Amino acid sequence: MNMQQAIKMTAAETALVDAYGAQIGDLPGDGAVLSLRDTLVHELRTAGLPTRRIESWHYTDLRTLLRDVPAADPSAFADRVEAIVPGSSVLSVRNGQADLKSVPEGIKARSYTDSLVDGSAAAGLAILGADDAIGRINGGLVRGGLEIAIAEGAEFAAPIEIQVVQSHGQAHTRFPVSFGAGSKATVIERHVSTSAEASFVSTVSDVTLGEGADVIWIVVQQQGPADTHLGQIRFDLAKDAKLHIFVINAGGKLVRQELHGRASGEGADLTLRGINLLGGESHTDVTFTLTHAVPHTTSSEIIRNVIFDRARGVFQGKILVAKDAQKTDAKMACNTLLLSDEADMSAKPELEIFADDVQCGHGATVADIDHTQLFYMLARGIPEKKARAMLVNAFVAEIVEELEDDEALVEALEGVISAWLEKHA
Amino acid sequence: MLEIKNLHARIAEDGTEIIRGLDLTVKAGEVAAIMGPNGSGKSTLSYILSGREDYEVTEGDILYNGESILELDPSERAAKGIFLAFQYPVEIPGVATMQFLKVAMNEQRKYRGEDELTTPEFMRRVKEAAAELKIAPEMLRRPLNVGFSGGEKKRAEILQMALLEPKLCVLDETDSGLDIDALKVVADGVNALRSPDRAVVVITHYQRLLDYIVPDTVHVLYKGQIIKSGDKTLAHELEAKGYADIIEAAA
Ligand SMILES: Nc1ncnc2c1ncn2[C@@H]1O[C@H](COP(=O)(O)OP(=O)(O)O)[C@@H](O)[C@H]1O
Ligand SMILES: [Mg+2]
Q1: DSSP string covering A44-95, please?
Q2: Which of A337, A353, A369 is the last residue of a domain?
Q3: Is the whole-model pTM more than 0.80?
Q4: Is the terminal CB of chain B with fewer CB neighbours within 10 Å at N or C?
């Protein structure tokens, strides 16, 4: 991405660079952070947003798809919303400002703005590689977020909800979250839009699990119909750590959710489940990379896409098994329900295996509603619209039910799905 | 109650004619058996009665209570009281059996302008009917038909029939795959539904089931036509001599 001369910037590129310019002097950071920001924005300016010529952005040509970016509006203000699972501890970020009113015991939380100001955030702002457009945009413009440390052995009765509420304008947030050895927690990362006006959101969560930590990390993305959501989760799993990531995309016009992680300790286990509900003219991309770095680690990934209208879905999944990572067990599946002739799905599951004694597999399927099932339901007197909605719901409900240990959570997620289907199906 | 007149129907996809001028009348209160060798069009007929769109009616008519149902979609036919117990009940992962039953019952009630059932009333009805059919509550907690044995699936069909209280019941080879005990349970379930305002069409190619569900009329379906009709003695005759004679005599 080393370009000799500045490209002609698109409206969106100009808006992002201008957003930086307009906030100079106001963006938090010490000297190191500020110079890093400057470098990132300079790269954005010279290289531009990624196009389909960049392999990892082949199916999501951000430069073409991102038409414009709403101006940052410091007066944009949104109230907290109710926790999605009743009784959760809610830690919110509104308009870049962390709200630490209800931090439960066992958690140390501070405003990420403070980490920018004192420079401790600098190392984490490094991008993952030349094509890490999300890391670049976010690093340049991030104003706030939460830095969270979960104590060793801590357990929680209720989920911890990290809430990013946005009415319009821009939000750039970061969430470095570390889970101490043996801790057990459910975190819900929730992105909500409170208006139909356009928002542009970039967010990076940096999740590290200590030895034996057992974590469920849920992403509920419910942006508005005009919104752009660029999300990234980085994760690292120590010995015997267990992480279940569950992503549900039920909103947004242009969405890219990246997940990049590493099983670094023996016995580490990753489960990824994704539900993507797409309609209208939206474009939603889930891109996942996982490195099995050591022997005896396991992972399982299932992505379910439901695509209506003229929406487009993308799933890229790459599992890399290092040379020493014998006995790796990894299975990846991407299943899509295409519900219109104009809907589209691109799936690219990949395995790169350098060890010889492993069990790895992947598969991708694309189908329409099963007509035999549909007829069976109609023959019992269920009207077609309702029967279709039930079958679509069934297609995704299966993987929600895996979280059955937490009934309230399952109910909340089913609620997100049925609300979306009621509106779109 | 049911009048099928000179029905011709073909597979929509490739135009193959399966039903070739079929006539059949079934009165309210009657139990009619349709017998015939494999491939003669029995299941196809049952699907056409239910309105499956894989088949196209090219000629003739189907009257239900005096009115043509050809323009009705399957869910409307069901709500009007036509029920098909499938030869191969369909598994639907992700749809809970109880939820399915409740939606089906209430959607039919809505269509007919009746109030929806309250949850306790629904539960009471399901429990009662399930006990009659020796269906374990555990089975009802699974997704619809998923992991059910062949016999369990057939019993689940009869459970649905009992709960939906249809007026015209079509049972497509409900006996296949059942051992004798299960067969009796199913037959009892069907017999319990027999009433003067209800008709039952039993499709089978064995006489065995008809020992337990005794038919008023028996019809032989062959190559898409009814080639012979009679009373229950016709079933015994078929059992003893097979289809060959009748087919020859009709030719
Ligand atoms: N949807 C279909 N596609 C292709 N062939 C079909 C279809 N439905 C029925 N047939 C054919 O029509 C004939 C009658 O089938 P069916 O009604 O199942 O017979 P039966 O139930 O009497 O055994 C068979 O030759 C069968 O293969
Ligand atoms: Mg058949």
Answers
A1: HHHH-S--TTSGGGTT--HHHH----PPP-TT--------SSTTPEEEEEET
A2: A369
A3: yes
A4: C
Atom 9 in ligand 1: which residue has the minimum CA distance? Answer: B44
Å between B52 CA and nearest CA of chain A: 7
Q: Is the ipTM of this complex over 0.90?
A: yes
- Out of B83, B86, B107, closest to residue A386 by CB: B107
Q: Where are the alpha helices (DSSP H) in A266-364?
A: none
pLDDT along chain A (425 residues), means of 10: 65 95 92 96 95 97 95 77 93 82 88 96 95 98 95 95 90 96 97 91 97 98 95 98 98 97 98 97 98 97 97 97 96 96 96 95 94 97 94 92 93 94 82
Chain A residues with CB within 8 Å of chain B CB: 371-373, 375-384, 386-387, 390-391, 393-398
Q: Using one digit for the tens of pLDDT, what is the confidence trace for B77-110?
A: 999 999 999 999 999 998 999 999 999 999 999 9
Ligand nearest to the CA of B85: 2
A103 token code pair: 């931090």
**In a mutagenesis test of the A interface, which of B50, B53, B88, B92 is the best target, namely the one with the most A β-carbons within 10 Å?**
B92
A contacts of B102 (beta carbons < 8 Å): none
**Cβ atoms < 10 Å from Cβ of B84:** 29
Residues 180-239, chain B, touching A (beta carbon < 8 A): none
Q: Which residues contact B244 (CB under 8 A, 6 or more apart)?
A: none
Is B107 at the interface with chain A, CB within 8 A? yes
Is the same domain home to A293 and A409? no
The answer to whether position A327 is within a domain reads yes
Question: Is A382 in the same domain as A352?
Answer: no
Question: Which residue of chain A has the CA closest to B48?
Answer: A379
The ligand whose atoms approach the alpha carbon of B39 most closely is: 1
B84 part of contact set with chain A, CB < 8 Å: yes
Cβ neighbour number for residue A8 with a 10 Å cutoff = 7
* The CATH classification of domain B2-91+166-250, taken from the options 3.40.1410.10, 3.40.50.300, 3.40.50.920, 1.10.3710.10: 3.40.50.300
